[in-house]
Each structure stands twice: as C-alpha cells, then as structure tokens.
Amino acid sequence: MSGSEDTVYDCIIIGAGPGGLQAAVYLGRYNRQVLLIDRGGGRTSHALHIENFLTRKEISGRELIELGLAQARTFHVRLERGLVTGLRKFQFFEVLAGGKRYLSKFVIVSSGVYDNLPEIENVREFLGRGFYTCVDCDGYRTTGRKLLVMGNSINTVHLAFAMKEMFTEDLTLLLIFYDPPEEYKEALREEGITLVKGRPVRIIGSSDIEAVEMRDGGRIPCEAIMSNFGFKLNDRFLSGLQLKRDPAGFKYVVNHHYESSLGGLYIVGPLNTGPDQAVIAAGEGAVAALDIKKRLLEL
Ligand SMILES: Cc1cc2nc3c(=O)[nH]c(=O)nc-3n(C[C@H](O)[C@H](O)[C@H](O)COP(=O)(O)OP(=O)(O)OC[C@H]3O[C@@H](n4cnc5c(N)ncnc54)[C@H](O)[C@@H]3O)c2cc1C
After folding, report:
1. Would you state the CATH architecture of domain 117-228?
2. Centroid of ligand 1 to alpha carbon of 10 (angstroms)
C-alpha cells in the first residue's frame, strides 16, 4: 500500500456507469463528500447506440458517461481513476484502489458486469454493429432482418421464440452443443425456426454482417446476430465479505433501498437481482443515494 488518506468520505462509489454516476450527482447535490473510483472502459462504454434512455432518441454509452462525469464534477464529486481491489469494513469502510486506501461511511458498488462472448475470431469487430448481446437493448435493431440467435442452453431456445414474436420472422437458431428436448424441437419446427448445431468460427462481412462461418466450413447467412452466453460480475473485490446472494449463488440480494446484507454497503445495477438496463441502474443509484442522505442526517 503506497498511501492512505485521512479523509473519511461520506460515500465512496465504485464504478462510473449510469448507476454510480447518478448516485454521485445526487450525493454531490447534498454537498456530501463523495469519491467516485472507476477503472474506465465499462459495459456502457461498449453500447454504440442507446435508444431507450429518456430525452435522447439516440446516445452512445460513451457520450452518456462523459456527460455524467462532467455533471458529477460540477457538484464537486472527486474522481479517481483506478481498479478497486479490496473492500473491508471496520469502524468505516476501507476501499483499496491503485495502491491507496480510502475510508468512507457508506459505499455504493456499481461496478457492473461483462458479457461472455462466443469464441468467434472477429466478434469484437461487429459488437454493436449487427452482433448483439441484449434483447432489451438491441432487439429492436433486428426488426425485419435475417437473424441468427446463438447460444448453448434452454434460455437460448426461449430467446429464439421471443425474438420471433417481437422482431423478425426470418430466424435461425444455432446451438453449439446443447440438445433441446423433443417438444421444443417440435415447437421450433411449428414456428418455422431452423435449428442448427455446431461451432461458429468467423463472421463474414465488412460493414454489415453477411453470414457466420462454421468450423465444418458451412455458412449460415444472416444480417444480425443475437448472442446468449450469459455474463460475469465485476465483483472480485467483494469476495471477502460473505454477502448474501440469490439461490443460484450468483447475484447479490439487496433490500428496496439497494442495501446489501452488509449494513451501509449498497449494490446497484446488474450486480443485484433486478433487471439490467442503463436507466434502471441510474434509478437504483438515485434510490441508494436518497437512503444514504437520510442516514447521514441521522448520524
Ligand atoms: C453492447 C451493449 C449495449 C447496451 N445497450 C443498452 C441500451 O441500449 N440500453 C440500456 O438501457 N442498456 C444498454 N446496455 C446495458 C447497460 O450498459 C447496463 O445496464 C448499464 O451499464 C449498467 O450500469 P452500471 O452503472 O451498473 O454498470 P457499467 O456501465 O458496467 O459501469 C461499471 C463501471 O465500473 C467500472 N468498474 C468495474 N470494476 C471495477 C473495479 N474493480 N474498480 C473500479 N471500477 C470498476 C467499469 O470500468 C465501469 O466504468 C448495453 C450494454 C452493452 C454491453
């Protein structure tokens, strides 16, 4: 540890996505001492076009973050660039980041998640440009297009039915090795959804997707891909805290103010059991901030 500060912040916020930034704006406007720690390059920054956040028909995730950071700074929120590696609670919370130790009365964790991507060599070239990972975010962009839904579980089969119902008739389902029950195969046939099994290796196309190349050399023509391989949580720094999780042992359980099973530690955004959207993370950040405002007054 190369340094430690004497300041005890009112709140340290981990992660400058929509959740953390909205909380920072609220707490900054109560004239509280707020430290926002962010390593940069989170999930929202990969969203090329957000169309469902109120007030803008379209905004990129990067612009949303830049505007949020500028807004938070006007309310004297301090921003530190760095990776949070540890979080403990003694009299105060102790947050370890970038070789330093910071103290705080409350902590809001808004460090988000990251998508599992299939092992397709050029997948990142098409991320957000025809290759999508979130039906609520980008399902609409597949409307009327030749769509390939890919994944490896029963959830992927359900997703294929949902995509057909809402967005497009022209749909192929690619499962890597998962074999769905017979009644599902029958339902897929009835819905006119082609089922293909195998391993995709490359996306064909330049500015637009034209097809997916399979390991056996075959090609599946498509204009858009909806991928369904789940995600992982950015939560390594929480590992020593034994926080309560959902029955699957995956996401964190929180109360209606987004406070976790450890008093004073709030978890907003897709790390908790609620849904995953930018506007929802922002709303949760606001609720957590309001609760912390109240508790700081009580202190
Ligand atoms: C391609 C794509 C498109 C999307 N499109 C939409 C859309 O159209 N509409 C919509 O509502 N949502 C969309 N989303 C989802 C949206 O990005 C998330 O719901 C939202 O980001 C959740 O906000 P958050 O604040 O919890 O996390 P994030 O935006 O993931 O921000 C978390 C921040 O925490 C930082 N961080 C992580 N770990 C640490 C650490 N240990 N130390 C310090 N900092 C850390 C990250 O670097 C990041 O800056 C999209 C997501 C993707 C990937």
Report:
1. 3-Layer(bba) Sandwich (3.50)
2. 24
Which residue is closest in CA terms to ligand 1's atom 19?
277
Please write the tens of the pLDDT for every residue from 34-54.
Answer: 999 999 988 999 999 999 999
Q: What is the pLDDT of residue 217?
A: 96
Q: Where are the domains of the chain?
A: 3-114+231-298, 117-228
Query: Which H or E run contains 52?
Result: none
Whether 3-114+231-298 and 117-228 share one fold: the answer is: yes
pTM: 0.96
- In the beta sheet, which residues pair with residue 259? 266
Atom number of ligand 1 nearest to Cα 268: 26
Encoding tokens for residue 23? Answer: 């909380």
CATH architecture of 3-114+231-298: 3-Layer(bba) Sandwich (3.50)
CA–centroid distance, 268 to ligand 1, in Å, is: 11
- In tens, the pLDDT along 75-128 reads 999 999 999 999 999 999 999 999 999 999 999 999 999 999 999 999 999 999
CB of 285 closer than 6 angstroms to any ligand 1 atom: no
Question: What are the residues whose beta carbons fall under 8 Å from the beta carbon of 181, sequence distance 6 or more?
Answer: none
Q: Is the pLDDT of residue 19 over 60?
A: yes
* pLDDT at residue 231, rounded to an integer: 95
Max CA-CA distance within the chain? 67
Structure tokens at 37: 């720690």
